[in-house]
Amino acid sequence: MPSFDPARIALPCAHFIQGQRVTDPSALSVSRPSDGAVYAELPMADANRVDDAVTSAHQAFVRGDWSRCAPRERARIMRRWADLIEADIDYLAPLESLGSTRPIDQTRAWDVPYTAEGIRFFAEFADKHGGEVAATAHDHLGMQIAEPLGVVGAIAPWNFPLSMTCWKVAPALAAGNTVVLKPSEMTPFTAVRLAELAIKAGMPPGVFNVIQGNGPVTGDALCRHPYVAKVTFTGSTVTGRTIMGACAETGPKPVTLELGGKSPQLVFADIPDIDRTAKTLAAAITGNAGQVCVAGSRLLIQHELLEPMIERLSKHFNALTPGPTWQTGGWFSPIISATQLTRIESIVARSREAGAELLGGGERFERNDGGHFYQPTLLHTNDRHNPAVEEEIFGPVLTIQTFESEEEALALAEHDVYGLAAGIHTADLGRALRTVRRLSAGTVWVNRYGRSNDYILPTGGYKRSGVGRDLGRAAFDACLQHKSVLIDL
Ligand code: NAD
Predict the structure, then answer these.
(1) 433 plus 317 within the same structural domain
(2) Which of 13, 144, 213, 388 suits 1 as a labelling partner, its CA being 20 to 30 A distant?
(3) For this UniProt entry, which segments traverse the membrane (predicted)?
């Protein structure tokens, strides 16, 4: 059942600067993963347009009607913003689904409400932090004051356009900063709508700006702009390194980087319910067709469970039916682009050439609608240097490796590059706690996988999976700087 007609959605095909839409000549084609159709031409911000946006944010910061307003007033506007986002679900959810990999059932049930609630979560910090009075000599008064940084440059990926915008933007705004956001050029539209709703909620013009464009031109100009005080980025590890370089050359400026992953799932033979674990493992690699930074993409399983687990995973994988994101009914997501689809195929082919055994999937879904759909795929190998084990695929491809002992499982779990997340499945509490402490991962889930709808636990990477943390108090604190004041009494 189509939930909406993809041809009938008004697209905010523009930047959003100083409280209004701004356009440039079209420069980028935007296509829909569900059918491959080009459905919009996007303006691209060059260095001058980036300068307009950053200058607008800088002037708003200096003006002070956001950065120096009563923090409770900031919080009130942000809560109103969240209410407006929820009330706009009939437009925002289709707009999010249209050109992304997020099926309409999910954008309605999860992406839109989760984004609104995330904004409320950070709004609550606005007036719940203070400074400190320091113990100094009796004839001095020492104080420490927390202040916003200035203009925060935010750069988001395409895999969860709304919620990633929330993670990047909401803590920065709650702390009193102003923001220039560059969404992914593949999913550019819902960010503009969010910025418009912020104005409607009472946020002053120039506080939250959106610029459209690609990474090397628009993103790079944003990172290098002298008025940008900090860059917060979510995307691949390679891009994160480039961004850190640009921020070092033009700063140094602080960065928060949420990067790639290759997360292991350790399954021990003592699990009480293999069906339940199989369901969790399947969901962890097929949700959003594996295009999730924390996708549980490496299954490490105690060898006696190998055959029964393959049987169960295959059943889950075979039950998934692809479908366009505008149809209701719980369809399996498309791959974001033709380029990414070809990349997945190439990694699977290289992995098989290197000796991995294909146990299921391994091909595109044959369709006549032009959609980019790849079958959930199982590869068995015990070579830790196999390409499918080493590289972040960002698709529905699960590798299976076996182990005999806890020590061996821990050794296999360690990845040379990534340390974003991990899962442990065992009935033995002692083993769970031992292994939690030895895994190099920013998040470890025990007998479950994936976030619940909480915002309080910080998320981020060990190793090259990131610098700093999103969510939680940590994300808010990272948007502040501290001033020490010493007064002669
Ligand atoms: P990407 O790195 O290709 O692009 C992310 C963003 O960076 C886009 O907006 C892009 O235009 C911009 N960009 C690209 N080059 C740039 C440059 N030189 N300067 C400034 N900006 C630049 O990533 P993607 O393909 O959009 O997203 C997938 C990646 O994101 C995966 O690696 C995934 O693991 C990661 N991710 C991580 C998290 C996390 O929380 N750790 C969450 C979601 C996605």
Answers:
(1) yes
(2) 13
(3) none
Q: What is the arrangement of strands in the sheet containing 480-488, beginning at the earlier edge strand?
A: 132-134, 140-148, 480-488
Read off the amino acid at residue 176.
Answer: G
Residue 138: per-residue pLDDT: 80
The answer for residues whose C-beta is within 8 angstroms of residue 32's C-beta and 6 or more apart is 6, 39, 98, 99
pTM to 2 decimal places: 0.97
Dmax over Cα atoms in the chain, in whole Å?
80
219 CB within 6 A, ligand 1:
yes
Q: Give the integer Cα–Cα distance in Å for 442 and 415.
A: 13
DSSP H helices, 331-405, are 338-353, 387-390
As given in the structure block, the two tokens for residue 4 are 């909406």
Ligand 1 nearest atom to the CA of residue 157, by list position: 26
pLDDT of residue 368: 81
Could you tell me where the DSSP H helices lie in 186-335? 189-201, 220-224, 237-249, 274-286, 306-318
Provide the residue type at 463 as one letter: K
- pLDDT for residue 2: 72
Q: Is 182 in the pocket of ligand 1 (CB under 6 A)?
A: yes
Q: How far apart are CA 190 and CA 111, in angstroms?
A: 11
**Segment 90-132, tens digit of pLDDT:** 999 999 999 999 999 999 999 999 999 999 999 999 999 888 8
For the segment 365-393, what is each residue's pLDDT rounded down to a tens digit? 988 889 999 999 999 999 999 999 999 99
How buried is residue 190: exposed, middle or buried, by Cβ count under 10 Å (0-12/13-18/19+)? buried
Range of the domain at 429: 264-446
User: Catalytic annotation on 258?
Assistant: yes
Centroid of ligand 1 to alpha carbon of 237 (angstroms): 8
Would residue 489 count as lying in a domain?
Answer: no
| Same domain membership, residue 185 and residue 41 | yes
Do 93 and 196 lie in a common domain? yes
Q: Would residue 110 count as lying in a domain? A: yes
Say if residue 436 is in the same domain as residue 474. no
List residues bridging with 399 in a β-sheet. 298, 379
Q: Which of 303, 290, 298 is nearest to 264 (CA)?
A: 298
361 CA to middle of ligand 1, Å? 27
Residues of the chain with pLDDT under 70: 1
- Token pair, residue 61, equals 């910061």
Ligand 1 atom closest to 466 (CA):
41
Count structural domains, the chain.
2
Looking from the CA of 344 toward its CB, the CA atoms found within 13 Å total 28
Residue from 96, 185, 258, 392 carrying the catalytic annotation: 258
